[in-house]
Amino acid sequence: MEWVETTGRTIDEAKDAALDQLGVDEQEAEFEILEEPKAGLFGLVRREARVRARVRPTRPRPKVDRRDRKRKGPERRPGSERRGGGSRSGRGGDAEPTDGGAPVSAPEESTKDAVPDGGAPPVQRKQEPARRKVSAQREGEPMTDDVVDVATQADLTVEFLEGLLAAFGLEADIQRNQVEEDVVEIDVAGNDLGLLIGPKGNTYTAVQELARTYVQRKATGRHHGKVRLDIGGYRQRRREALARFAHQVADDVLSSGVQKALEPMSPADRKVVHDTINEIDGVSTLSEGQEPNRRVVIVPSA
Amino acid sequence: MSEVSDLDTGSGTEPAPHARAVLEYLVRSIVEAPDAVEVEVDDNGRRPSLNVHVGDGDMGRVIGKRGRVAQAIRTVVRAAAVRDDVDVDIEFLD
User: How many Cβ atoms sit within 10 Å of the Cβ of residue A138?
Assistant: First the structure.
């Protein structure tokens, strides 16, 4: 099965998280809402929304792609072979026009699949998507149900960055550091990397987002752990500046006894603030607001 | 289309090789059908326009939800265009 399960403050947020993981557009996914969110007083007590999502299994993939992916995609790890995929070796998948043809037929099929019109023989309706699903996985990426470990994600990230640097015509040194058991940081160091950081780190953020998209599309599944990216020391400098800033605000809160809300920040930046503040006695943090306007509030501890 | 215009420098150099290379790379990295990706450079406007064509069904992947992937691609490609000393437009066409 290739369902992913995610949570969020709202159904939409949970859906977004699921789409992030699946790496597809909303129209290509189907959702099941497992739990509605429950808002508490002042947004403090709440239950998160929980959804389940998967890529609609009806669309056969273009043949070209399969071949290409094998050639220059990340090499398949033995562990990601499909269980019970006996049929896999038996078929010359690449050469055969399998699974009923071109992607052109997709819309029609998905409609048919979605509308229980009762016109088509039920048996066929049931079986077709299942068969396709198997073939898509067989030819494509590792199974969604597999855990994609952090080492694999790091490999893919490095692969993506190497290609990007080559396209830029830049030379850089890519290093990976295992900073925690399930956290790998990838550092890109070299000259002229300012281009890849950009004003206010815009390009850095975009590169990071595209790297994540790449990893998610090459290896669907439950992504375990986290890959962080640093380019030219930007992330490090940004973290240090944020931590200094958080310290200053914490001092204010401590001396005044009045809580302070910070300006909205990205999740990564918020984490830096949370981590910094939680090491300081007498203050703690909470988050409020919706992405992308979610912000940290620094409050005096009771 | 095949006519060489008078304004052509004749050197056959394209206006934004780095931007184009980066654009092709990024789009091919995230679609299902990399071989179907084509980038054509339209140099007739005020500034070069890089027009991206992708295979059937891949446009959604390139755009991403709320256009986030497309926006990230534009940002990175514009950075690459700095190396080419030009400003470029990036268009995703069906």
Answer: 18
